[in-house]
Specification:
It is built from seven helices and seven strands, in the order αββαβαβαβαβαβα. The protein has about 230 residues and is of the alpha/beta class. A seven-stranded mixed β-sheet has the order 1-7-6-2-5-3-4, sandwiched between helices. Helix 1 crosses helix 3.
């Protein structure tokens, strides 16, 4: 593991990192690639596929290894658990409540974060992929709206192996056989031709499709397989 940045993590979020990172280093193998695609300074949106509850941990360690402290969009229910609430609040993560008005509030918080120069992580599928073969599903347009209205670069990231460590149907991690976690970042997605203060529905969908295609392409390289024709971005 590379040396992680310690500033601006918050006490409880930083403590969680210090506890979890060594355990994962012992229990898993890591393949981290593409750090140079994550800007060391300035606002950036990191877009990753979603396979497992272990994805946020994997992406956290990846972005830290790239020299950035991540902020996540996460369901508001996590703030209702005492210990987890402290971790989420100290890490300045962004709660997402159900409902249109609350989603708008989360969007505004995300925009404020990237404009303040933060590294904000989004799982554009809005939940775990529902494909049994692990390929990404259709993305939601919230990430694209943030990117197009702010001009913030979107760095695509592919995660693989997290579903072997912590399957969505399991409450405990599986460390035998020792899983290998892949986290790979690609170049920022080209969206300059779509930038707008008020992007249209078609522009938002086009941007979202480009982002998901970039994630799928990275995942295909990691898996050494060609995604089926019906997969998003194939």
């Amino acid at each position: 593991m590379r040396r992680f940045p310690r500033r601006d993590r918050g006490f409880w979020f930083g403590l969680a990192i210090e506890v979890i990172a060594p355990l994962l280093a012992l229990a898993t193998r890591w393949r981290l690639e593409g750090h140079h695609n994550v800007p060391r300074r300035g606002g950036v949106l990191v877009a990753a596929n979603h396979l497992s509850f272990a994805d946020p941990i994997a992406v956290t360690l990846f972005t830290l290894a790239a020299g950035r402290v991540p902020r996540f969009f996460a369901k508001a229910e996590l703030w209702e658990t005492p210990v987890v609430r402290r971790v989420m609040a100290s890490g300045r993560h962004i709660p997402v409540h159900r409902g249109k008005a609350s989603a708008l509030h989360a969007f505004r918080d995300g925009v404020a974060s990237v404009r303040a120069g933060e590294c904000v992580v989004v799982f554009p599928e809005g939940g775990f992929t529902d494909r049994a073969d692990g390929w990404p599903t259709r993305g939601k347009t919230g990430l694209a709206r943030m990117a197009l209205t702010t001009g913030t670069p979107v760095v695509p990231v592919a995660c693989w192996g997290t579903h072997e460590l912590l399957p969505v149907t399991s409450k405990l991690p599986r460390v035998r056989p020792r899983p290998t976690l892949h986290v790979v970042a690609g170049p920022a997605v080209e969206l300059s031709d779509l930038l707008s203060e008020r992007p249209s529905a078609s522009e938002l969908r086009e941007a979202t499709e480009r982002i998901m295609a970039a994630i799928t392409s990275l995942l295909a390289d990691v898996r050494g397989r060609t995604p089926p024709a019906e997969a998003v971005g194939a």
